[in-house]
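Allow me, if you will, to draw on your knowledge of protein folds for a short while. I have a record of one protein: its chain in single-letter code and its fold written as discrete structure tokens. Could you please explain, in whatever detail you think fit, how the structure tokens follow from the sequence? The record follows directly beneath this note:
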Amino acid sequence: MTEKITTNAILEALILYVLLFVSGSTGQVPAENFIAFQITAELTRIILYNIPSLALIWYLFLKNRNPSPGIGLPNSKDLLPGLICLPALILIGFIIALISPYFSKTAGGPTLLPPYGAAAWIILSISCISTGYLEESFFRFYILSRREELGLNSSAAILVSVLSFAVCHLYEGPWGFLNAVLSGTVLAFVFLRYRSLHGIALAHGLYNIFVYIAGAL
């Protein structure tokens, strides 16, 4: 029975990963060196990709759990994990941006151009936060919370979480891959320590917004 549960859990996780992150928008490799922000395209991605993908992950996670873990609103317990993760993610990104120019032969990923106008920034913020929730819901909450069903101990679950997350950022080049490895490791350890999805998801989303703000300066 345990072997059957483990097999089913692995198959479900693999299908979700391939469907949502490998064949989905996160896994696509852009051909352009500079990617302009487009409100229509970003709204379409939020409505047709982020929200349905997030709903699917949570539906599959909750459907066979009795009692099901509650999905409450963010509260004070989420503050500390967020305050740990956000500066850590910014520091990792800053260090990589600082040292990468010294390795000019190493190809970088595409440059994301900042949006223009208040409406575009609002849509961008919604996109970044929803993407943060989507990725943290799968790569941290789903994988790490189901590690026993997947037949993984804590160390193996962290490794699977980090590497699967990093592979989806290969389109950003080797430095983006390294950033994802280091950031994913921090996020995984903080989640296991505090069990706060909201804290790490909001930190992830705010970091994504910070990247655009830094690019606009």
